[in-house]
TrEMBL record:
One of its GO terms (molecular function) is DNA binding. Gene3D superfamilies: 1.10.150.130, Intergrase catalytic core (1.10.443.10). PROSITE patterns: CB, TYR_RECOMBINASE. One of its GO terms (biological process) is DNA recombination. This is Site-specific integrase. It comes from Clostridium fessum. Pfam families: Phage_int_SAM_3 (PF14659), Phage_integrase (PF00589). InterPro entries: CB, DNA_brk_join_enz, Integrase-like_cat_sf, Integrase_catalytic, Integrase_recombinase_N, Integrase_SAM-like_N, Tyrosine_recombinase_XerCD. Residues 76-166 form the Core-binding (CB) domain.
């Protein structure tokens, strides 16, 4: 039977014994109860009535404890739980970038309801919180509200936290499972940007022109001697070959930026014409970190066409020649794409060079129809996927090359390409059936 002890003028401590643990220590569950002193009509309760309320609460508390319905979530605040979640789970299991996002979301949660106990986070309260997020303005001063996708990502973090609380026996159910996130009635058109096939062909042609890689005002001093001009020519050729190979690899494999920058020569198999994607690089709290790929299925081996292998061989020879020319200044990390001293290429460099090439190419075009869209580096990944789907490559093969954990992800992102295929299929079927109908209806002379 639960024991009741008055600990204050209007506070009672309820204690229930639950046997002993493995080392013989008695297990107790405690809670403090403060009964209402007034009736529903506002009149003071009698001492007997208050004692009856306390006894009823103690009996209910004992029942919940003995049947497993009472958890530590009744007394643990969200803020206290968040600290345990980060230390005991997130920091041990999440990738650096994911952990950073989790920590950022948790700071917001603590600010909003960190004082509340886990048990008091009801579906209704969390629904109101999510609805408020959908109406919140962005911090950039644009006046726009948070996107539905942003809110869903924050909600996913909270749901994962509360699911882990169930595993730790702090909650009996996840209230986020009953929360609904309504998408806007008129969602923004979040189109992915990529090169069409003709644009991709023009882009590859542009990569052959050394002038497109050169930034205006690059030279700090004139090149007076033949030796200086030769060194400059070699440097230009070296830069061109490296970036050309980088962009070819991006557009022929669909790899992510971090996957490309993290590549080492050990990842490239010249004999079998494949490249292994087993790691990635990202920036977390202003530090560059090399980590495993985004998901288990992101680790993959991709076949390469002969033109890409040929470029790889060309770049490897030039890099080796350059490495020998600077001697001890070279910091050998085995990276394919490097800074001047052999260190891993900066994360921003591919994006900057891509835009330089596109802008320099567009500056030479008199015909507007020949201009290339200024796509981000990730647009080359979208280009690869779109062209593969447009070439009727099996969607599972496309998903495998991209490193998507699920085919559904590929289907959702590249629905535009699938719709175009469906239109082509419809036109082809109409053309075929029309021909048959015309043949059948034709009257022989």
């Amino acid at each position: 039977m639960a024991s009741i002890k008055k600990t204050g003028e209007n506070a009672y401590q309820i204690v229930v014994s639950c046997g002993y643990n493995s080392i013989g220590k008695k297990i107790r569950r405690k809670i403090t109860y403060k009964p209402e002193l007034l009736t529903a009509k506002g009149n003071p309760k009698s001492a007997a009535s208050i004692e009856k309320d306390v006894a009823a609460f103690a009996a209910d508390f004992e029942r919940k404890v003995l049947t497993g319905q009472y958890t530590d979530g009744h007394i643990m605040t969200f803020e206290k739980y968040a600290a345990k979640y980060l230390a005991e789970y997130a920091e041990e299991n999440q990738a650096p970038r994911t952990l950073q996002s989790t920590e950022s979301a948790i700071k917001e949660f603590i600010s909003a309801f960190g004082y509340m106990t886990l048990e008091n986070l009801t579906p209704l309260y969390l629904q109101e919180y999510v609805n408020a997020l959908l109406k919140r303005k962005k911090a950039d001063g644009s006046g726009e509200t948070l996107s539905c996708g942003t809110v869903k990502r924050k909600a996913a973090v909270l749901s994962a936290m509360l699911s882990q609380a169930i595993r730790w026996n702090l909650l009996s159910a996840n209230p986020m499972e009953r929360v609904q996130i309504k998408a806007p009635d008129t969602p923004k058109d979040e189109k992915i940007v990529f090169f069409s096939q003709p644009e991709a062909e023009r882009f590859l042609e542009a990569l052959e022109n050394p002038a497109y890689y050169t930034a205006s005002g690059r030279l700090a001093r004139p090149l007076d001697t033949t030796a200086q001009r030769l060194d400059d020519l070699r440097a230009n050729r070296r830069s061109m070959t490296q970036y050309k190979f980088l962009f070819y690899l991006a557009i022929f494999t669909g790899c992510r930026r971090g996957e490309l920058v993290a590549l080492t020569w050990d990842d490239l198999d010249f004999t079998n014409a494949t490249i292994s994607i087993v790691k990635s690089v990202c920036r977390v709290k202003k530090k560059i970190i090399i980590k495993s790929t985004k998901t288990k299925k992101s680790a993959r081996t991709i076949s390469l066409p002969e033109i890409v292998i040929s470029l790889a061989q060309e770049w490897k020879k030039e890099q080796e020649y350059y490495r020998l020319s600077i001697g001890s200044q070279w910091k050998n990390g085995g990276y394919i794409f490097t800074r001047w001293n052999g260190e891993m290429m900066g994360l921003e460099t591919p994006y900057q060079i891509l835009h330089r090439v596109i802008n320099n190419y567009n500056a030479t075009q008199a015909d507007e129809s020949a201009l290339l869209p200024l796509i981000p580096l990730h647009g080359l990944r979208h280009t690869a996927a779109t062209l593969l789907i447009g070439s009727n490559v099996n969607i599972r093969t496309v998903a495998s090359r991209l490193g998507h954990s699920d085919v559904t992800t590929t289907l959702n992102i590249y629905s535009h390409a699938l719709k175009e295929l469906d239109r082509k299929a419809s036109d082809a079927l109409a053309d075929t059936l029309s021909k048959k109908a015309n043949t059948k209806n034709s009257v022989p002379e």
